[in-house]
Each structure stands twice: as C-alpha cells, then as structure tokens.
Amino acid sequence: MDNNLVELSKYRMEQAKQCLRSAKLLADSGDFRGSANRSYYAIFQAMRSVLALEQKDFSKHSGVSAYFRKAYIKTNIFDPELSDIISEAFEVRNDSDYDDFYVISVGEVQDQISNAEKFITDIGVFLEQQYEK
User: Fold this and answer.
1) DSSP string, 22-61
2) 3-class SS at 7?
C-alpha cells in the first residue's frame, strides 16, 4: 500500500475523531445544533479516510456518500446500517444548519453521537486491516 495514501487516510480519520470529540463537547455545553454538525462531519471524514486509499475524492458531499455506498455498502464490505446512519446524519445536519426553527432534542443529539462513534469504529477496523496489506 502506498505510504502517502495511508498517511492521508490516517490524517482524515484523525479529523473524524476530532469532529467526534468536538460533537461531545458541544453537546455537553448545550450546543446541540453544533454537535449535530460535528457528528455529521465525523462520519463524512471517516468516509473520506476510506476513499483516500483509492485516491478518490469528490467536490460534493453527495459524491462522497454515493461512492462510499456503492463501493463499500452495496458490496457488503460494511453493514447496510451505515447507509442509514449517513442519511440520518446528513438530514439532521442540514436541518440544524439551515432551518432557522429546527429544534434538536438531547436524545437526537446523543443518537447522532452514538451513530458517529459506531461509524468511526467500523471504519477504523476496516482501515487497520487495509494498512497491514
């Protein structure tokens, strides 16, 4: 495996983990909209960490998630549940960022954080296997 691609992948995974840490801090401080945003970006960066190994990237978020679903979820490399997590995180992030009157509950924020944790864990296991090749 190309060391530059591995390093890029690891860098993006570290960004994903930082976003998750930020999501937790924001939730603890009562900034639920900000937490939803960071939870989504944790998932997004985790997807990009996988795509880095293929030298794939896209200018739009929809391109990243569409490719990830096609290449990794529909082929059963990852559990189809991850597709639902991507969709929900994107929807909640969009609502939180762009709908002036959107109210997100503590429970929804905790779900988003839990989903991001699962996503990062699953991706992390996969990446460690890829790095060893």
Assistant:
1) HHHHHHHTT-HHHHHHHHHHHHHHHHHHHHHTTT---SSH
2) helix
Residue recorded with tokens 């691609």: 5
How far, in Å, CA of 117 to CA of 111, rounded? 10
| Biggest CA-to-CA distance, the chain | 49
**Mean pLDDT, rounded, for 118-128:** 98
The dihedral built from the CA positions of residue 41, 124, 108 and 83, taken in this order, carries a sign that is positive
Domains and CATH numbers, the chain: 3-131 (1.20.120.330)
User: Quick one: pLDDT at residue 119?
Assistant: 98
d(CA 116, CA 128): 18
φ, ψ for residue 102 (rounded to 5)? -70, 130
Percent of all residues in the chain with a pLDDT value above 90, rounded to a whole number: 97
Query: What's the pTM value of the predicted model, to 2 decimals?
Result: 0.96
Structure tokens at 117: 């944790």
Q: Which residues contact 79 (CB under 8 A, 6 or more apart)?
A: 73, 122
